């Protein structure tokens, strides 16, 4: 049984991600955990309201959130009836990432599915930040669904890679399961900078070829471009329904000098984007 965490702020964007989740996993037995976190407005020290009033305010916010979450669960069950799916609601007075971390550990969550608004230009400082924080801080896969994306079965999956992956990544089977369940074709894309692959990279490429032997898969090379441009060019030529990447751990200097590829893609992708933490990130 799959255990999937679905954080929501009750926005259309969040509900679109939930709709994607239940359709993507319609053939799977799933326990979905609907999560809403709230932080009532802080009461200033100069306020006439006492601590009792503050607690009352928190209780009101909690009750309202519980009611909304129960109504949300009922809406999902009505719109997408599925005897294989069950829902648990959790409302918490906490910061989102902290509560997601707690839920992942307490409920043995397999992966998180959440909405992302996307961004352009300077606005990206303010948009999609919750999804980025989740990707950076959680030690399980995160599937980010653009708010405008209408569900499409992932028949064409893009997997950009530098062939530096760890074969023992415990989340790698997720990608093969998606290919199996949706009879998908996997496009393995490498951005070539003119530097030949090392022996380790060649070995990993052979590993992927064997690992996906029962799935339709193709290797692609994009010459003279970085990963972001390679992905953009590929999507112009080939329609894809899902993108998957492994999030490697960047050191401090790299984070200062270069915008990490994952950051850029999660803000600008037009299709759902599954980010799998590397083994290194899982052990941070």
Question: Any overview of this molecule?
Answer:
This protein is an alpha/beta fold and 284 residues long. The chain folds into 2 domains: 145 residues, Rossmann fold (3-Layer(aba) Sandwich); 127 residues, HUPs (Rossmann fold), CATH 3.40.50. The protein has 10 helices and 10 strands. It has a 10-stranded mixed beta sheet, with helices on both faces. The longest helix is centred in the N-terminal third of the chain and has 29 residues. It is globular, with a radius of gyration of 20 Å.
Short recap of the structure:
With 284 residues, this protein is an alpha/beta fold.
Blueprint of the fold:
Layout lengths: L1 E6 L4 H13 L5 E8 L13 H29 L5 E8 L3 H12 L3 E6 L12 H9 L4 E5 L9 E5 L11 H11 L2 E8 L6 H13 L5 E7 L3 H11 L4 E6 L4 H6 L3 H8 L4 E5 L1 H4 L2
Parallel strand pairs: 1-2, 1-4, 2-3, 4-5, 6-7, 6-9, 7-8, 9-10
Antiparallel strand pairs: 5-10
Helix pairs in contact: 3-4
